[in-house]
Every structure is written in C-alpha cells, then in structure tokens.
Amino acid sequence: MQIWVDADACPVAMREMIVRAAHRTHIQATFIANQFIRIPPSPYASARQVEKGFDVADNQIVAEAEAGDLVITQDIPLADEVIEKGVTVINTRGELLTKENIRARLNIRDFMETMRSSGVHTGGPAPLGPQQKQAFANQLDKWLVKAQRYHTAQAKSSD
C-alpha cells in the first residue's frame, strides 16, 4: 500500500501534509508531475518528473497504482480510472471519490467543460480554506489508519 500524488495541481500545503504523514507512518508517497516539484525531505517520499505532455503523469499513476493504494488527485478522469483498479481516491479538498459518486463528478466536469467551450465564464474552484485542509487531513488519516491495520495484520499472518 502506498500513496500516489498527481502533483502538478497539488497545493504545497497538501504536499507537506502528505510527506509528514508518510514519514510518520512509514508509508511510501510518490509525487508524479511533468514539472519539477519540491517536497520536504523524507526517506518515505519521492518526487518523479515525467515527460511533458497531455496525461503523461496521469498515465504513469494509472500504470503503477494498485488495489489498496491511495491516489490524491483533482483529476476526475484519472480518479475514475484508478477507482476501477480498486484504488482509494481523495481530492485535495478532502472529498472521497468512489464508484458511487464518480459518474456524477464526470458528468459535472463534462457539463462545465461544455459551458466553458461555449464562452460561458464558469470561474475556478474557490481557494482552499481551513475547512478543506482539515477535511483532507481527516480523509488522509482515515486511509493511513486502514493501511497500518492492513500492515499489522500482514505481519501477524506471516509470523
């Protein structure tokens, strides 16, 4: 079990939170981006730069993420692809994306894209506030607790 971060659009505050959590729990966090990103130093966190190009970072995450892993992304199509593989997905606002809610998210995304392409100014998401940061921290902690229980159970079964 490990954490994969779609790092191109991941806010610095969330990157720092993820690295601290990975270091505290000894779970590997890999940040994938098509540009250089800075992360705090930790033996449990790494940043990997992939080629520039449409969906190159997303495709790398899809190729490497496995069932039981966590992906952190704002990208709805990426979330949809990894959810199909049994991966847990949260966005940087702390929302858990699941098989039950991803279709609605895709529909909203497509609708907003249609509106923008027809000239309607839709604006972007509101800035992250303390509530969203707390929601993100809570979702991350929930997954980490689950991951640690899994590792403990695996260690006991191999004894």
Describe this structure in words.
This protein has 159 residues and is of the alpha/beta class. The protein is built from five helices and six strands. A six-stranded mixed beta sheet has the order 3-2-1-4-5-6, sandwiched between helices. Helix 1 packs parallel to helix 5 (130-157) and helix 3 (76-83) packs antiparallel against helix 4 (102-117). The model has no long low-confidence stretch (mean pLDDT 89). Belongs to the UPF0178 family. InterPro entries: UPF0178 (IPR003791). It holds the Pfam family DUF188. It comes from Salinivibrio sharmensis. This is UPF0178 protein BZG74_12710.
Task: Please outline what is shown here.
With 159 residues, the chain is α/β, with parallel strands linked by helices. It has helices at residues 12-25, 56-64, 76-83, 102-117, 130-157, and strands spanning 3-6, 29-33, 45-49, 70-72, 88-90, 96-97.
Keywords:
159 residues; alpha/beta; six-stranded mixed β-sheet; 6 strands; globular; UPF0178 protein BZG74_12710; UPF0178
